[in-house]
From TrEMBL:
Protein name per its UniProtKB record: Small ribosomal subunit biogenesis GTPase RsgA
Keyword Cytoplasm listed: yes
Family: Belongs to the TRAFAC class YlqF/YawG GTPase family. RsgA subfamily.
Highest classification ranks of the organism: Bacteria, Bacillati, Bacillota, Bacilli, Bacillales
Annotated function: One of several proteins that assist in the late maturation steps of the functional core of the 30S ribosomal subunit. Helps release RbfA from mature subunits. May play a role in the assembly of ribosomal proteins into the subunit. Circularly permuted GTPase that catalyzes slow GTP hydrolysis, GTPase activity is stimulated by the 30S ribosomal subunit.
Entry binding sites for GTP: T112, K113, M114, D115, G166, Q167, S168, G169, V170, G171, K172, S173, S174
Organism, scientific name: Amphibacillus marinus
């Protein structure tokens, strides 16, 4: 018996790293019977007579797992949002943050393409990101000249398993290629008609980058809250949690209830108005969601 970590899943095969050797494995039928699916990032017990004919026989307990992208045991999510092309969007960033917070994964915000922002728009980007810093989020600004923040980002990645997520075309693949040129991940031009990039990644794979493991993850641009319950949404806004203990009602939704400490903080400009507007938007979206059967 051997123990290792799944580094890549492709076409029914799982590529498991154990003591610097990569084994191509299949999953035993018992996983399907038990409605279990091995994920990239899983620690597993497997058996293999050689490097091409192994079988995964046990999944070890997970710290966490994501459905889209399908990956397990993530330490942090690097959320890449561009300052320009496509334009900086707090609502898009907040959607990513809610999904990451719901999975109890630490978010790190990367604002890419800062060199493309005109001086007139720079203040708006800085003002918005100042709010995120106040909430306790790590925020890093990156330009196409990746070396400007290289040392700082390497510190963020070292010793961690990270998902890098974000809207297509924000520079995720370019960022990874810079940190590890051996990857040669394909990058795509921005579509002028859609204002977004084409998907360039086809599978989930953990790669060694800057002393850590990073997954370039297709599918994270699907941002529906189909797994999130209404009661959990307020917990995904850390700027609300600071005040919610002082609400009159324990199950306060921070919408219509009297003596709501979150709304009082909003009135005092202690919570960003755009964050509260996004909260209402997400709340209504989950409320109107079709029932799952």
């Amino acid at each position: 018996m051997l123990q290792g970590q799944i580094m890549k899943a492709l076409s029914g095969f799982y590529y498991v790293l154990s003591e610097d050797t990569l084994y191509q494995c299949r999953a035993r039928g018992l996983f399907r019977k038990n409605k279990q699916t091995p994920l990239v990032g899983d620690q597993v017990i497997f058996e293999a007579d050689n490097t091409t004919d192994g079988y995964i026989i046990e999944l070890l307990p997970r710290e966490n797992d994501l459905i889209r992208p399908p990956i397990a045991n993530v330490d942090q999510a690097l959320i890449a949002v561009s300052a320009k092309e496509p334009d900086f969007s707090t609502v898009l960033l907040d959607r990513f943050l809610v999904l990451v917070e719901a999975n109890r994964i630490k978010p790190v915000i990367l604002v890419t393409k800062m060199d493309l922002v005109a001086d007139s728009a720079l203040a708006d980007v800085q003002l918005s990101t100042d709010w995120y810093r106040k909430m306790g989020y790590d925020v890093h600004f990156l330009s196409k000249e990746w070396s400007a923040n290289l040392e700082q980002i390497q510190t963020v990645l070292q010793g961690k398993t990270s998902v890098i997520a974000g809207q297509s075309g924000v520079g995720k693949s370019s960022f990874l290629n810079y940190l590890n040129p051996d990857l040669a991940i394909k990058t795509a031009e921005i579509s002028n008609s859609l204002g977004r990039g084409k998907h360039t990644t086809r599978h989930v794979e953990l790669v060694e980058v800057a002393g850590g493991l990073v997954a370039d993850t297709p599918g994270f641009s699907s941002l529906e809250f189909d797994q999130l319950e209404l009661t959990s949404l307020p917990e995904c806004f850390p700027d609300f949690l600071e005040y919610s203990d002082n609400c009159k009602f324990r199950s306060c939704t921070h919408i219509k209830e009297p003596k709501c400490a979150v709304k009082q903080a909003l009135d005092k400009n202690e919570i960003a108005s755009f964050r509260y507007a996004h909260y209402l938007q997400f709340y209504q979206e989950i409320q109107l969601r079709k029932p799952r059967y």
